Amino acid sequence: MAENFEQHSDISAADLARLNQEAQAEATPSTAKIIWNEFKADKPAMAALIIVVGFIVFVMIGALFINTPKMMETNIMDYFDKPFTAGFWLGADSGGRSVAKQLIVGSRNSIGIAIGLTVISSTFGIAWGLISGYFSGYIDWGMQRVYDFMMMLPMTMMIIVLVTIIPHYNSVSLTFIFSIFYWEGTSRLIRSRTLAETQKDYVAASKTSGTNHWKIIFKEIMPNISSLIIVDCTLSFAENIGVETGLSYLGFGLPNQTPSLGTMIANANDPSNITLYWWTWLPAALEIVVLCLSISYIGQVLRRAADASQRQGAAD
Amino acid sequence: MSLIEIKDLKVHYPIRSGFWNRVTDSVKAVDGITFNIEAGETYGLVGESGSGKSTTGKSVVGLEKVTSGSILYNGKDITKKENRRKLDYNRDVQMIFQDSLSSLNPRKRIEDIIAEPLRNFEHLSKDDEKLRVLQLLNIVGLDADALYKYPHQFSGGQRQRIGVARAVATNPKLIIADEPVSALDLSVQAQVLNFMKKIQREFGISYLFISHDLGVVRHMCNNIAIMNRGRLVEIGTREDIYNHPLHIYTKRLLAAIPETNVNQRAAHRASRLAVEKIYEDQQSKYYDEDGMAYPLVQVSPTHSVALPEAIAKQLASQEGEVQA
């Protein structure tokens, strides 16, 4: 059979290296290169990228050098020290604990939970949506009824109940509890696009080429909705920082001895803290605003990179 | 023995309605058709849009769930999934799609697109695979620098040729060509059709050529089946269909072929109107009381038409055809 092709084409094994080289020279730039060009064209987004990546790396590494139990010890002598006094850059809170150090460890905890939650819930939601949308019929029907049931549960209340029931929980178990409830939006979004994508001819062509269902779902359809996936992930990451923060603010998030952005903002529960001791809550609040804004800038660039008609970056 | 034998193939889609969403009726996309495709020939399947010709093609390649009937390949009924898997059926039967853009995955490079059937069926080494892809590109007249590009960087004709290259990659015995050129402009149509003919000569492939364009079908096909409302109305050789059409539907299709001879404009117009008049007056003669076509009746060894036997004989003798 191979001879059949040899016969009717004047290309033989000897030409392989040369032709491959020619083709490589004409190759289209990769997706990573296109995204990078897009960041170069959009200065605010570039700044946002540097802020987000720099900040995450800083808190992840910085937190390693801080002894958390020692930091969280109460020291009455430093009661509400002002910023830039007695070695406290950002002052101290009512327990005489350094706000700056709490901010670093707290950011690490909050961002860690947000990343973990985004990874787990998006992976599950994407897989759920893709499988449901691709197979349709009874499988889709069953999976969507499970989705409807999960949507019906009052999320915040369920999380609070679970957190109260579980005796010893930490940031890892909290991440898993959140993940039970946060995959739904993603899955429905992905399913709707998958339904449309599955009807296209390239899926039929893959079927006639003998590719199995799982390969079609994850290697053919998924790359085609990657723009949606990337944008959804960045936005839900920003949202997920808020999830932990909100719950900790209410007092049902991380335990008291574990600082997080939410517990720090909870300082603003006290009217005198809001007016007199502003340094206890303002840095954390500002950090959340800056992070979420930056992430949405990055999300916009990724969306533009995925859609050729919106691109601003130089075309290679 | 024929390459593919289609026997009484039916594809019905259920219509659900009412509070309980029960099946109340069905759309009969394909309603009992029978024909054979011989090795090495091009079989034309012609009809207006919605007549079920694409559904037939998809059933033959295994993309459509068949309601009843059988499609025999090597004596095995390939409407069953496990038979298709056992035979590695799609290694031997491939498909060329109408819309060249949507049939190529926009996120994959040309190399990966053409190599897809090779990876599933042939398991070649990396270098052999790349060589095969380059040879295929060469056969369909594209340069090697197409290898690492994406489908949107090519013109319609080039994309359709990439589709042809993918279909012939595993050296199949039959290719279902579902309106392969109807999305292309005329000069490119000729180019792609000639490529398909050339490949047929070199590799001995059969085509099931699905089209609504009788001009293209005349260029490509030896045997032709005319489809109307899910049923076959006429089967015959090119000669039978073009020179001795018996069914009124076939005559209408033929009358619809545009003529370029302006001097005879009035005459062509008159003959078109005459055919239309016969259709309007004698519709009940050609279709049964439900408006469906009759079962096929043979009028010569190669020629069959969907009419009651008496009318078929009468029309055939009018046409001066030799009786079987």
Could you characterize what this model shows?
The complex is a heterodimer of chains A (316) and B (324). Chain A is globular. In chain A, 36% of the residues are buried. Chain A has 316 residues and is mainly α. Chain A contains 16 helices and no strands. The mean pLDDT of chain A is 84. Chain A has helices at 2-8, 16-25, 31-41, 43-62, 68-71, 99-135, 137-152, 155-165, 171-181, 184-198, 201-208, 213-224, 226-250, 261-265, 271-275, 282-306. Chain A has one domain (35-310): MetI-like (MetI-like fold, Orthogonal Bundle), CATH 1.10.3720. The two termini of chain A are 41 Å apart. Chain B has 324 residues and is an alpha/beta fold. Chain B folds into 2 domains: 37-65 and 88-243, Rossmann fold; 245-324, no CATH class. Chain B has helices spanning 53-61, 81-87, 89-92, 110-121, 126-139, 156-168, 186-203, 214-220, 238-243, 248-255, 265-286, 309-319, and strands spanning 4-17, 22-37, 42-46, 68-73, 76-77, 93-96, 174-178, 206-211, 223-228, 231-237, 297-298, 304-305. In chain B, strand 9 (223-228) and strand 10 form a beta hairpin. In chain B, helix 10 packs antiparallel against helix 11 (265-286). Chain B is globular, with a radius of gyration of 21 Å. The model of chain B has no long low-confidence stretch (mean pLDDT 87). Chain A binds chain B through residues 1-2, 4-13, 15-16, 19-20, 22-28, 200-202, 204-211, 220, 223-224, 226, and chain B through 58, 61-63, 88, 90-91, 93-95, 97-99, 102-109, 116-117, 120-121, 127-128, 130-132, 134-136, 138-139, 144-150, 153, 163, 166, 171, 202-203.
